């Protein structure tokens, strides 16, 4: 499935890379696209392996406030 997340606190492409790398470490992630200007990320994933809550927790652990939108 595809899920959008609001991600706060990103200020540059390094932050984008940090978020994308962290999310990609989870199982079942198919695609991660983070948009710095919109402060959001769209993640495609296999819901049999991972869920939106786990993805949000991973982003938070990487240092950015996030919520499922
Ligand atoms: Cu940055």
Helix-strand blueprint:
Elements: E1 2-8, H1 13-24, E2 29-35, E3 40-45, H2 52-61, E4 65-68
Antiparallel strand pairs: 1-3, 1-4, 2-3
Bound molecules: copper (II) ion (CU).
The site of copper (II) ion has 4 residues, from helix 1.
What does this structure look like?
- The chain is of the alpha+beta class and 69 residues long.
- The protein has one domain (2-68): 2-Layer Sandwich (Alpha-Beta Plaits), CATH 3.30.70.
- 32% of the residues lie in helices and 35% in strands.
- It contains two helices and four strands; from the N terminus they run βαββαβ.
- The protein has helices at 13-24, 52-61, and strands spanning 2-8, 29-35, 40-45, 65-68.
- Strands 2-3-1-4 form a four-stranded antiparallel β-sheet, covered by helices on one side.
- The longest helix is centred in the first third of the chain and has 12 residues, at 13-24.
- It starts with a strand and ends with a strand.
- The mean pLDDT is 98.
- Copper (II) ion is lined by residues 11-12, 14-15.
């Amino acid at each position: 499935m595809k899920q959008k997340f609001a991600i706060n606190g990103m200020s540059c492409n390094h932050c984008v890379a940090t978020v994308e790398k962290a999310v990609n470490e989870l199982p079942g992630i198919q695609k991660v696209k983070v948009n710095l200007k919109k402060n959001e990320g769209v993640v495609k994933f296999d819901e049999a392996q991972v869920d939106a809550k786990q993805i949000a927790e991973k982003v938070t652990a990487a240092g950015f406030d996030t919520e499922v939108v």
